[in-house]
Amino acid sequence: MNLFRIARNSSLSILFITLLLSCNSENGNEEKLFELLDPAITGVDYTNTIPENDTLNQYTYHYIFNGTGVATGDINNDGLADMVITGNEKPAKIYLNKGEFKFEDITDKSGFKTTGWMSGVTMADVNNDGFLDVYICRSGPEKNLQAKSNFLFINNRDLTFTESSKAWGVNDMGNATCATFFDLENDGDLDMYLGNHADQFFANVNVPFTRKLKMDIHNQQHLFRNDGGKFTDISDAAGVTAMGYCLSATPADFNRDGFMDLYVCNDYLIPDYYYINNGDGTFTESFKQYFKHSSTNSMGSDAADYNNDGWMDIITLDMLADDPRRFQLLGGSKDIDHFRTSVANGYGYQYMHNALQTNTGSGHFSDLGFLNGVARTDWSWSPLFADFDNDGWSDLFVTNGYYRDVTNLDFMIYSDRILKQTGQKVKQKDFIEKIPFEKLSNYAFKNKGNLQFDNVTENWGLEAPTHSTGSSYADLNNDGNLDLVICNQGDKVQIYKNHGTKNNYLQLKFKGGKKNNTFGIGTKVILTTDSGTRIMEMQLVHGYQSSSAPTLHIGLGADESAKKITVIWPNGEYQNLENIKSKQTLEIDEKNASGKYVYQVQKEFTFEEITELVGLNFVHEEKENPDFKREPLLPHRFTMLGPGAATGDVNGDGLTDLIITNARESSGCKLFEQTPEGKFRLSASQPWKNGIDADILGCLIFDANGDGSNDIYLAAGGSEYEWPSPKYKHHLYMNNGKGSFTEKTDALPDVNCSGSCITAGDYDADGDLDLFVAGRLNPGNYPGLDIRSYLLNNIQGKFTDVTSSVAPELNKPGMICAAVFADYNNDNKLDLVVAGEWMPVFFMQNTGDKFVSQGSAGTRNASGWYNSLLPVDIDNDGDLDFIAGNKGENSFIKASITDPLRIYWTDLDGNGITDLWMTYTRQGKEYPLYQLDEMGKAYPGFISKKFTTYTEFAGKTALEIFGADNMAKNRLQASNFNSMILINNGGSFEMVNLPRMAQAGPIYGLATADIDGNGFLDIIGTGNSYSPRWSHGRDDAMDGFTLMNQNGQLSFNDGYAVGFEATGDEKALVMLPWKKDKLTFIATQNGGPAKMFEVKSGMHFIPAKGVETKALVKLKNGKTRVENLSYGSGYLSASQPGVWVNSSVESVQFIDGRGNLRNVRS
């Protein structure tokens, strides 16, 4: 039996669940939240049109269709939000709100005269007189710099304006996109960051990146300080001068120190900038220190505490299409060499999808766009976080569309061919008619909380196809609901009326005075209601080339009042308001504020990193390997699987030592001995140093021959060599009793597989430790099923392969990543649990003379990409539950029961080489996961014969592409990527997903201890994977974590919150008694240093002896939990068996396979 096959027989279950879900969907009954108003009624009939010709088109100005913006705000202080709309080749317009969605065009009589190519627009009170002024950016194809001088219209307080940009020193002549006003020094006036874009196209990855690339001064970014009546350019002094293609700049106090920081989005190759405010008028660019990757073509952005955790988050938009046809039709994937070169030359890790950068505390961010379901919105521009349905959660609106599909792959080939044929002498107008034109729907996402957004575009009435760019929200009719204004290319500006009536709200307006920040820009509000606590900031600029009215809108849901509102002004003074009734607009006056708000309270962390203190000096050395050259359609690399780690006493001094494995062509595995002083020194015995030419993954410190000293097993793995190869030979090193090791080649049978983990336990209860050795893959033949795993019986220190006779189903079980011996049915026999890629968690029951499959024991429909297993009695009921670490839900690749991921393989083109393809499911149909170019390189003889254009290929299902015969030959399926708890119900297991944040990436390292002393075992984990294919993006959102256990319920804590900062490509996680009795964790990472963390709570370690298999831990509250004592669990991890106890434990009873008992008082 092949365990993979379990995934193939769930079609009927999936169909049934799909029908059940569709029948119970509530979406179809939801009322339309928004109504598109007729311009004839509103009086706003503005249309931005651009006449394309030989001198003005996509080729003469590459930002021709980047669109325009809109600013909303009350220009005459009559309580109604007015608007200003910019145009590219037509004058801007200013509309006065007359009430009930009636607007009057007052452009001419207000003195609001504009010319040139306009882009962004912002309303802000520049001169602190209590009236909103207007700043308009200009750019465009015009070479005359004077034609690009920006406008500043000062409000004369009588519905007229005076253009004053030169007088105020902000008549910049660059290619301006946006102007962001914020108080950088908290001195009471609004300063300005001006985002320009370079006028030359820069995309040469071979040129090393520097923020000071040579450029014209007009095309760099500028920071202007407001000195009262005049702005001063302080860009150089403040540290913000940089080349870029700025499309948006969003301010927020991301690190909660009381000063506004700034996130700058750059288009094209230039990376985004993250400027941390130093509090002295200067900034430090710190993107790489706080973000792990970014969007490639970062466009609009917006900041909000979308998950209500008290930290400001930010979203940036890009161009990844969600529609299967457009995904195939539009370009975007870089080849691997281009990607590697751009990273090597300093451009960072950039991926073409929306990035929802979620603040995990202390100003560090993880992109959770895919987890939240908002990563794919096509060619997107303006994101707006706002509570459109007033339920207490920030929803997300996204504008979408580009007037010409210039990245259409067929058109790109056509234009390249024509240019070559004509020697670039063809009229550019001839191209214009060939560029595809397609209107797209905008997107609306309802925030459901718990890191989940629902696409409600149609349900909210926002599905009209357009080419939309800038957008703004405001309560245009003062009914307590946020309305929308949207700029379109070639179509009229849209005004959407919000009809929400169900939920309560509050609106706050701020009246500055002590230092004249008249609208309180930068003021923070901490809101406490019956539903929880969240933070908001009063900012002007949101989205793309636009600003929104300076009123802070708060949805309250069903709450009829806010228990407490803390208002923190930019100067640090604050005031508290209590029991504020809903459905009203409050004006909050700064004169009532006092004191100084304390932003940061130093907390006591649970963990402390002690790597340097103990002298643990290990860096895993990974080389670039050609995984994708050899097998171009792999979903991820297999040369980046390690390192593993194991702990145990190797020299008999009573102190626990450590071994960490290493990669091929490295300095080899490292064995560290712990000294009595608590330091770690390299052992003099490293016999594997020069004798192994392969990745070493799994390792084990255990007594192989029963002589009382620990020996070492090393498992070769990876995919550097095609299998079979003698390089994949496994190794056993025997200890002379003093910590000196010699390889014992005759103690092992011919174990030759690209392996992963090793687990040891006395499964036959004969008093010695037997082994299960997992086969990970068949290198060069993914996902080949003929992968050997081995059950090895120990007979006086020599191991015999008994797989065929004792556990035949484990001969070729699949791609196993994790395995553990554990008595899950409490019959005092060690059973075996395994999990891996394209398979469910699988249970093998020990009957006494054989291992008999129990199948997936309740996890049949949860085939996934599992990495790790941890047995733990999570609910203190006396049986072992399991934590299963999976791929997670935060990646380009998705899998679920209703929308499974599948892989197929056969020889498509008859050349004797097996070809593979993967599919994803959308509305019951399977589509190819990879784009045409990627598949064409893998099997050109098949693809090129069937499809000559991208248009022919785009939107085709996998069945249409590959045919029924090929689709019927070999198939595997994944239907669950969630990491889970498997609750033991006495023979079967109930699947319960881990907390949502634990799905932010793949989980690898897993360990357990009661670190808070409440009597329940907590979970400590690590994750991430940098091995996914370059076009899909690294899984890098995990920071290390704890899952704190309260009576069987787990709550997530990010590593930054507890001091367990394991933020790299984390792999093994082992526990080690430091100085005999201090609990520590060692986390390894691929291509980086190992780290050691001490738990700062009183713990005591009781080591297991001999072949004890489990312990019954009696608690002082009368409960008894069971703990597993086998060697090896988690991922490539093998901690010294034993029990960690604290003050909650009364006694421990150790049990071996023969039923022998050993009682220990805690």
Name the helicity range: under 10%
How many beta strands in the DSSP annotation?
79
Shape, please? globular
pLDDT average, as an integer?
92
Largest beta-sheet characterization: 5 strands, mixed
| Helix segment tally | 18
Topology-level CATH name of the domain at 607-895 and 975-1161: Methylamine Dehydrogenase, Chain H
Uncertain runs with pLDDT below 50, 5 residues or more? 1-29
Instruction: State the end-to-end CA separation.
Output: 46 Å
Look at the structure and name the CATH superfamily of the domain at 607-895 and 975-1161: YVTN repeat-like/Quinoprotein amine dehydrogenase
User: In CATH, what is the class of the domain at 607-895 and 975-1161?
Assistant: Mainly Beta
Largest sheet: spatial strand order: 44-43-42-41-76
Oligomeric state as shown? single chain
CATH architecture of the domain at 607-895 and 975-1161: 7 Propeller
Strand content: 35-45%
Indicate the radius of gyration in whole angstroms.
31 Å
Structural class: mainly beta
Short key terms for the protein model shown above:
1162 residues; mainly beta; Methylamine Dehydrogenase, Chain H; five-stranded mixed sheet; 79 strands
